[in-house]
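Entry 12.
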Amino acid sequence: MANILISGAGLGGLCAALALARRGHCVRVAERTESLTEVGAGIQLSPNAMHVLRDLGVEPAIERAAFEPEAAVIRDGRSGKPLVSVPLKDRCRSRLGAPYLHIHRADLHAALAQAAEAAGAEILLGTEITDYAQDEADVLAETADGARLKADALIGADGLRSPLRQAMLGPSAPRFTGHIAWRATVPADRLPEGAIPPDATSWIGEGRHLVTYYLRGGALINVVAIEERGEWTEESWHRPGDPAALRAAFEGWDERLTRLLTLCEAPFVWGLFDHTPLDRWTEDRVALLGDAAHPMPPFMAQGAAMAIEDAWVLAESLSRGDDIASGLSRYAAQRRPRTARLQRVSHANARSFHRQAGLKGRLNRVVLRAGGMAPALVARRLDRIWAHDVTQDSFAAGQRLHSAPQS
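Predicted 3D structure (tokens):
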């Protein structure tokens, strides 16, 4: 078995550590921060992610901490009227074989860290990998304090501004997508019961949209508000946002939302950045994973899911018995088409959610209302993403979807 070094103890890095350790590899995870904590708020785990998390043995811990929504709904932001609704709760379990769950990022992070360490992975805190060199036998990872760590393979799960991606492919600045995001959580008991629907709800409007869903068994309401901006210079999850600016951006929207936003007292705000799909993810014994390889705009709620899928495929590819470089190349070849497609779909969703003015806006609303009248058609389009199960071969996954009962 191989000695694997992973740079970055985020969701993708920890998931890869767990998947590799469970296959018997010796795994170390280098994390630049001094404590193993996770910032952010809620994330959505669709069935394609849950298949992996079930295989890795963490589904019970996730279900205990999560909330299962009734439906995925698109509503007009000002009137609150539903435009599209796709059932989730029973449909995902019966048709796709796994639940659709909402979970606080910190809860998922803690579950993965605990499971990875229990499986034998070692987490090296305060260790930032900045560069690497390699020969025919080893990779030498260089740290910010000048140390060198030897491994058979090095995995860059070090995020959007990945030092390992730059070491592999040269300098490249992330591209501002033209959107900023606010995030906040609100205790559910501060609103009348049922004020916010128990769904994954996207409230859409011109130049902006807002997403609401529940966390921690319904104790918290997660708020993600997206607004178009002409420019933004900082990409940080830690920047405090102005609550008044958040409320002003959604003034005149459905009163349920405006009431909710009055309770967002300390939101965070950051710019959304990405990269165009990379030509390659690997260099011999070094590979990229998650946001380091394919930062995903949040308009399909698939960023975490793609990193989770990456982790399982990478671990499986490295465990097939051939040489490490071939295993990593196989991983990248399998993952690049799917992640590039979802990057494109996510960008298209942003345009659709925000296109409300003029002729294009009217046509967009007609398309959305047509989807609302044919929810089974919308559901089947989502199934192409959610039914994907990397823990099974693609033929078997396709057969399961083909033979599943139609909704």
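Annotation: Confidence is low (pLDDT under 50) at residues 370-374, 394-407. The first helix runs from residue 11 to 22.
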